[in-house]
Amino acid sequence: MNHWLTAPILLPLLGGILQIFLSFAPLGLRRTLGLATTSLILVVSISLLLLADDGAYRVYALGNWAPPFGIVLVLDRLSALMLFMTALLALFCHIYSTRGTDAQGRHFHALFLFQLMGLNIAFLTGDLFNLFVAFEVLLIASYGLLMHGGGTARSVPGLHYVVLNLIGSSLFLISVGLLYSVVGTLNMADLAVKVPQVAPEDLPLVQAAGMMLLVVFALKAALLPLCFWLPRAYANATAPVAALFAVMTKVGIYAILRVYSLIFGDQAGPLANLGMDWLFPLALVTLAFGVIGALGADGLRKLVAWQVIISVGTLLAAISLHSEASTSAALFYLLNTTWVVGGLFLVTDLIARQRGSAADRIVTAPRMRSRTLLSVLFMIGATAAAGLPPLSGFFAKVLILESVKPSPEMGWLWSVILIGSFLTVIAYSRAGSIVFWRNVEGHVKDPGHLTLPVTVSAGALISLSLVIVALAEPINRYADATAEQLHTPSAYIEILQTPVVTRRESL
Amino acid sequence: MHLALEILIVVLLITGGLFALAGAIGLLSLPDFYTRLHAPTKATTLGVGGIVFSSMIFFSFGNKSLEVEEILIMVFLFLTAPISANMLAKAAMHLKVDRMEGTKGHPWDQ
Amino acid sequence: MEILFAFVIGTLTASGVYLILRARTFPVVVGLTMLSYAVNLFLFATGRLVTAGQPIIGSAKSYTDPLPQALVLTAIVIGFAMTAFVVVLALRSRADTGDDHVDGQKEAFWPEPGAKPAPEETR
Amino acid sequence: MKALNGRFGLPHPMLSITLFLIWQALSNGISGGSVVLGLALAWLLPLFTRNFWPNNPAIRRPFRFLTYIVRVVWDITVASVNVAMLVLNPTRKPRPAFVVFPLELEHPLAISTLAGTISLTPGTVSADISDDNTLLLIHVLDMDDEADLVETIKRHYERPLREIFK
Amino acid sequence: MTLALVVLLPFLGAIVAPLFAQAGRTAIAIASSVPPVIALAALYPLWPAVEAGHVLVQTQSWLPDIGLSLSFRLDGLSLLFALLILIIGLLIILYSRYYLKKHENIGKFYSLLLTFMGSMLGIVMSSNLVLMLVFWELTSLVSFLLISFWNDKQDARRGARMALAVTGGGGLALLAGVLLIGQVVGSYELDDVLAAAQLVKAHALYPVILVLVLLGAFTKSAQFPFHFWLPHAMQAPTPVSAYLHSATMVKAGIFLMARLYPVLAGTPEWFYLVSFTGMVTLLVGAYVALFKHDMKGLLAHSTVSHLGLITLLFGMGTKLAAVAAVFHVINHATFKASLFMATGIIDHETGTRDMRQINGLWKFMPYTATLSMVAAASMAGVPLLNGFLSKEMFFAESLELNLPGLWAYVPPVIATLAGIFAVAYSARFIHDVFFNGKPVDLPIYPPHEPPRYMKIPVEILVFACVMVGMFPAISVGPLLNAASAATLAGDVPDYHLVVIHGFNLPLVMSFIAFFGGLLMYTQRQRFFDFHERFREIDEKAVFEAVVARLSEKARALTSFIENGSLQRYAMLLIVATIVVAIYPMFELGLSIGSMGISPVDAPTVVAGLILITCAVGTAAMHRERLYALILLSVVGLMVALAFARFSAPDLAMTQLSVEVVTIVLLMLALYYLPSWTPVEASRFRRWRDIVIALLAGAGMFLVTLAMLTRPFDSISRYFLENSVSGGGGSNVVNVILVDFRGFDTLGEITVLGIAALGIFAMLRDAKLAAPPTDGQGHPWSTDAHPTMLQQISRPLLPMALMVSVYIFLRGHNLPGGGFIAGLVTSVALIVQYIASGMHWSHRRMPFSLTTPIGLGLLAATVTGMASFAFGFPFLTSTFSHMHWPLVGDFELASAMAFDVGVYLTVVGATLTILASLGRLSMKSNAMPEDS
Amino acid sequence: MITIALKVTLAMVTLAVILNVIRLIKGPDAPDRILALDSLYINAIALIVLFSMLIHSRLYIQSALLIAVMGFVGTIALAKHLKRGSVIE
Ligand code: NA
Ligand code: NA
């Protein structure tokens, strides 16, 4: 068993614990250690990504208990991709936070690292109940991060976010319980084996469980009509937190990808492709609603927050098509949107800091000190997000459009995505031209200076859209392979045969 | 089990139950809060104490090994009941809850 | 017994849901707690109702399903942490908005579209 | 030795003994392990929690304390029946009263012990202790004679307690 | 990779050029001309092959999944456009050197200009449709930035956004069209697409493809009704207008029609769509041009008109028409670019472009005037100039259309009419600017001839107009031939490039146009008066209003739906759950499984009824908050009893402890909240919520009942069998927690720890006013720490701690364990807090409250990691039986160490949470220090 | 004999619990309710102990002990809340 599989979990855990002990240590030390931890996580994630690229499943039986009895970590292409995507985003967010965000309240670094721990568990675990625990870890950390820095505007959206997620957690438990009460197991591979064998009279129970689980994941993913908590919560979080949260909705999407391809996939008998027929129209409506939100946004943060919802709609629309090509396209899009939206949150923050009381609102304000640089970054980000060439968003969108064969779905998908893109372009160009160009006389008192770390982290995230273009071919190849792996769940099921390390009587 | 022990257990149980019931009846039927306060503080505590005590005997002789965790329960019950009563009385005096007619003396201001 | 148990869970759920839909933070928190009771009982019941089969080896002839119990334990602890957080958040919201409405004080916090923006910070 | 006693000694010997005994009882019979662990706990727990129990009065006569407890238990049992009768007899109306009891005891722990005793014995509940620890407010469920009651309490409980907590 | 290099060079230049900005305008202009010069040089050797009709394709695979390759192509058509782009680009670079002012951001300007050049080259040289599309949209983006170069001007910003919206939006339609072509053909490689022309035309999707592609082409080439963006794009600096809006970008749409001509043209759909659009555009542009007082406005509308002309030619579908179209592309580019540049010069020298102010410039700048007049004459279609030639071909083709009946007259009439307008506005351009009396209030007076080198580009272009006009066969013959061959897929018809074809109908039409135009110009005042009657629409304002309205509507809709109401969001979540579960529930019905119902006993029923009563009571009485809280504790107690009743001792204990801590927590919160809830919801709302709640409850009832009465088999057998042998404990629940599923527990205590940290952080600076009185208006009691409580709770602490040690130690084999022990310890300490106050207790705590959290997590993690040292996976446990003298036999399990971690975390987290809340009141209530 | 006695006692305690709940719901004042809750906790101890005796299992004695501890803490916290508002100060 490859112990490195635990590293993406243990590193942030140990780093977080260290931060607890150091909570009264000088900020510099905490920053250094925090950044070092995140960097290490990135290094490990990259190695795992390279490792996973051979297409094999790597199983880690925690506590040396064989699946399905113990909890297993499973590394495949998808989880490795999610780990890497998250780690890279997190590193830049973390660097950005050292600009002062981390000094606005206690325990920022600890919360940040625990957030990563929760995310990484979610991506690695092969156990449904453990996925619940992972969700809770990442949620509780996200609650803390969301409220970080205080401020009156945060508490109400934060409250909404927490309450809704608590209801969601209850639903998750009910669903897991219901599944267990019929099939008697929690391991996802074992569930995949046993769900198709469920007796007909028990089917409604499993079906109810599956559908409720979908509601839970849809809530995390912010699918309409469960997405309303998101814009205000994200728009009010501190920038690095909002940027990191770009990955939070993706956890829901990851869960849908994982559970509904493995447990309720094509091979699930009467429950095959459960819920996917609901998902497609809802995803399109989500996309449309995101676009409407973006059009109506009165602030840049809100605009970017709605972009998150647009991404969710796009991703889920592609995923619900349930073909290898569309899954692969969705994965490509996933990378693009996560990084770029993260970058946009950071850039928006830099903009807001130079505009005095106008902050990020789309109104006339005195000219920014670093207008050129910020406008270039914003423009790149907006272009990538709206899916215009020559940036990654365009290729992602083309991949998604291409992945669907002529059918009524194609008509809907194409229309919504393309008209959505058009309106998004209008929204971004309107926002950008007002914020950057429509200036009034005057000076902002004490505008923030751009320091190297913040510029680099915001710029780097935005520039990733260029990197994706440059590396489009290998990325796409990886996405293809990932989609193929996802759509062949029979291979995943073989992890149940994992042998454990032979036990000696005592160590 | 020895008959005498059985009888002891049964007596403890029944009296305990009766006391618990008496406490509950008192709680329900006594006229004001201060008089009701007496019922659980004593009758119920004592009744439950008796039941717990019978359990100790029951298990100690039934399992042929000394089982005394019940003592801890009783200690806790008897140590804490007066404090609870005191705290509640203080709260009631603070809130100036109604006293039954004809109560002599008067509560203190809180 | 099963009907009673199911009815208990149903009632807890209904009461919890009703409270969650209230407009003030406190009832919502109480509702969440109630809902989590329902969920814990439900999760526990996935191992079915067993009267005298303990999950302790050597204590009984037959055993109950220990796994749901372990899951519920985890769920209780997590639920406690979450409840604590939401309680504190409710207080925080009360401190920040001056009201215990779940949406804060509407007028003060969510300006209507078209409301006058704050004057620019200009010299 | 004194310094050692200060930092590592037994701040509450009575407590330690009690803890040791309880542990033996809990441990399902006396064994080597339970004695060792019991000793350790009897030593360590009072040590750890000593800050939480400062300036405790010394209990001069531990055996006197035991007889006190036995007496109280007996009183409770006998008097309980009276109260039960009162409660269960719907025709009898209680004659409640608040009685102020002048305290002779000074140490708060002693006062609290007295108050607790009064509460446990049927018919009386300690409702409050005055801020200066000189008066005890007692609620009586069914009072015949106030002076008699005060005298009984003083004789039965307060004097023994004064001897115990000197 | 020559072709890729040609495209890439300007992009490289765009990166390098700004570095020369510091060195001055000349330096940057020279630096910027390097890429186009090299590109021209690189193309030169390829000329013979192209002329011979060869098609050069160089392909580099990129994203095979979407059929996207870096595939470049050089044929006559792309060469023609590439030359236009590069040569006019060079002239623009030179011209801009003098046009731009010193203080302007020349680095940005040249960089954008070169980026644009690269993108344009990309469009014309792509041999892959998707790749072309990339460049296509890039030109939209860059033109957005170029138009808004003077972004402090509102008109510039609005014009730029409008251009982006129209051309970018069209690009998206084109994207759809291209992707559909790909679906039909199976490839985006131009060679494959061209080869599959018949397949495409026969395909059911052909009309859709056609419309989508044409949407792209028409928006880009400013065809009616999308033409409105172009005049507003004139807010750009004049070199940009000259380059983008006459010579290159607007020709991209034309280029696209030419490129896909073999694939899409030749059908009735094509004919009607394209020629009709072209015709309308031709006429509308020409008409409006006449009335523009702004010189650039005139030129812009003239451009619209000429683009319509070219489109119409393509639409006609005849081969000669296509040749004429290609020819007119060249001619229009030359005369229109020179006219724009001349306008720029005039603007530069006079400070205005308003023809009502500018008069009689002949006197001040005769040289410029001459050049302009030649170019304008070409625009009017005066013989011996290149404009005349292609216009003649156009007139001739308009006569060749075989339309039925009277329709046959429509094209020639419209063509002539447009010709009349063209002559009229050209005449105006000449007369109104250079003659027509004296200048009126010129901002700069007197105007002079521009710097020498600023005129060079104009001279070159005008020279080209004349050369082509007089020696067409020599000057552009080969290029036109090659381009036409590429457009028509090799099938070039016979045509003769001569100055005059003899006296024929087209010549007559030209005469009519010429004299009609002059007549119209002389009678212009009437037309002006006529035109005045129609209120001119400012498309920018309309666009702006539409966007603003869209935005407003969107905001209204968003804030209507996403209204910040948790009640609504929660309702949606719950209703969504009910909706998705309702179908399976119906399937299930009131289902009692094969295990049947087991009998009840009275105490259980009573407890159940109490639970139900109190649960409903909590909901019903929730307005009285303390009452609700008390009822809730009864519910909690009953739940604990239920756990005990159904064989879950650990759960009962956990539930009991957690419940009391929760109640204390809620009470702490209640202190700062109103003690009762006002009635707010309407009766309808309450009933709606009751219905939702009942549905949810009914669902849970059905599910639970079905589940409880069905047999099942689970993995738990394994746990029961292996608990003692493999986990070393007989309490299977505890062994699952600390061993089988220890990872869950690690996550769980992490959650607890994080919650505590988060709460600590959140409450650190919270300011909550403590209410001065309780809910009924009583002032709070002053007796904070009652003597009895204080005194008795002190000996309770060590006893409670011992109990927790006891619970902890037996946990592995009997009910208990770290978690419950931790809660007991916490509760014991909380009693101290309650009895003696925070201050008092805090000072006596031997550690800071967060330390145990860290220690606990560390203990659990390190215990888990210890197994690494022995080659076992994380969290592998071990245990052994030991014998020590005195102590005797005992068991030591690593899971115990893990459980210590759980214990410590629970203690730390619980205390941190409660103490953080308690601290609130210390701040708000200045309490006297406790003794 | 013991079993019968257990069941009789169980019945009595169950009845006591019902009476407690009635007082809890009737109030009328908060202290009454808390008092009823306190009795309920204490009677729950009896229920658990009786149940343990019925099924001959000592696994729940700890739970009874915990009820004693937790009931106390709940009661004093509620009482203090009534009197002082802030439970921990
Ligand atoms: Na008494
Ligand atoms: Na004029």
From TrEMBL, chain A:
Ribonucleoprotein among keywords: no
Main location: membrane
Residue ranges of the TM segments: 6-25, 32-51, 71-96, 108-125, 131-149, 161-183, 203-229, 241-263, 278-297, 304-323, 329-352, 373-391, 411-429, 450-472
Recorded topology in the membrane: Multi-pass membrane protein
Origin organism lineage: Bacteria, Pseudomonadati, Pseudomonadota, Gammaproteobacteria, Pseudomonadales
Pfam families reported for this sequence: Proton_antipo_M
Species the sequence originates in: Marinobacter halodurans
Family statement: Belongs to the CPA3 antiporters (TC 2.A.63) subunit D family.
Name of the protein: Monovalent cation/H+ antiporter subunit D
The NADH:quinone oxidoreductase/Mrp antiporter transmembrane domain, residue ranges: 126-424
Cell compartments where the protein resides: Cell membrane; Membrane
Keywords for the protein's UniProt record, in alphabetical order: Cell membrane, Membrane, Transmembrane, Transmembrane helix
InterPro entries linked: CPA3_Na-H_Antiporter_D, NADH_UbQ_OxRdtase, ND/Mrp_TM
UniProt superkingdom: Bacteria
From TrEMBL, chain B:
Organism of this sequence: Marinobacter halodurans
Pfam families assigned to the protein according to its UniProt record, in alphabetical order: PhaG_MnhG_YufB
Transmembrane segments: 6-30, 42-59, 71-89
Designated name of the protein: Na+/H+ antiporter subunit G
Superkingdom, taxonomy of origin: Bacteria
Annotated keywords: Membrane, Transmembrane, Transmembrane helix
InterPro entries linked to this entry: PhaG_MnhG_YufB
UniProt-listed NCBIfam families: CPA3_mnhG_phaG, PRK12674.1-5
From TrEMBL, chain C:
Membrane found in the keyword field: yes
Alphabetic keyword roster: Cell membrane, Membrane, Transmembrane, Transmembrane helix
Membrane topology designation: Multi-pass membrane protein
Region (Disordered): 96-123
UniProt signal peptide: none
One Pfam family this sequence matches: Oxidored_q2
Principal location class: membrane
UniProt subcellular location: Cell membrane
Coiled-coil boundaries: none
Ranges annotated as spanning the membrane: 6-21, 28-50, 70-91
Biased composition (Basic and acidic residues): 96-106
InterPro entries per the UniProt record, alphabetical: CPA3_antiporter_subunitC (IPR050601), NUOK/Mnh_C1-like (IPR039428)
Domain of life, per lineage: Bacteria
Record flagged with keyword Magnesium: no
PANTHER family associated with the record: ANTIPORTER SUBUNIT MNHC2-RELATED
Family: Belongs to the CPA3 antiporters (TC 2.A.63) subunit C family.
Protein name: Na+/H+ antiporter subunit C
Originating organism: Marinobacter halodurans
TrEMBL record, chain E:
Protein name: Monovalent cation/H+ antiporter subunit A
Localization of this protein: Cell membrane; Membrane
Domain MrpA C-terminal/MbhE, residue spans: 685-767
Domain MrpA C-terminal/MbhD: 610-674
Pfam families noted in UniProt: MbhD (PF13244), MbhE (PF20501), MnhB (PF04039), Proton_antipo_M (PF00361), Proton_antipo_N (PF00662)
UniProt-listed PANTHER family: NA(+)/H(+) ANTIPORTER SUBUNIT (PTHR43373), NA(+)_H(+) ANTIPORTER SUBUNIT A (PTHR43373:SF1)
Domain NADH:quinone oxidoreductase/Mrp antiporter transmembrane, residue spans: 126-407
Annotated source species: Marinobacter halodurans
Topology term for the membrane: Multi-pass membrane protein
TM helices/strands, residue ranges: 77-95, 107-124, 130-150, 162-185, 205-230, 242-264, 270-291, 298-316, 322-346, 367-386, 406-425, 460-480, 500-521, 569-586, 602-619, 626-646, 652-674, 686-708, 745-763, 792-809, 815-835, 847-872, 892-917
Chain ranges of the NADH-Ubiquinone oxidoreductase (complex I) chain 5 N-terminal domain: 65-110
InterPro entries (alphabetical): CPA3_Na-H_Antiporter_A, MnhB, MrpA_C/MbhD, MrpA_C/MbhE, ND/Mrp_TM, Proton_antipo_N
Residue ranges annotated for the Na+/H+ antiporter MnhB subunit-related protein domain, each copy included: 788-912
UniProt superkingdom: Bacteria
Keyword annotations of the record: Antiport, Cell membrane, Ion transport, Membrane, Transmembrane, Transmembrane helix, Transport
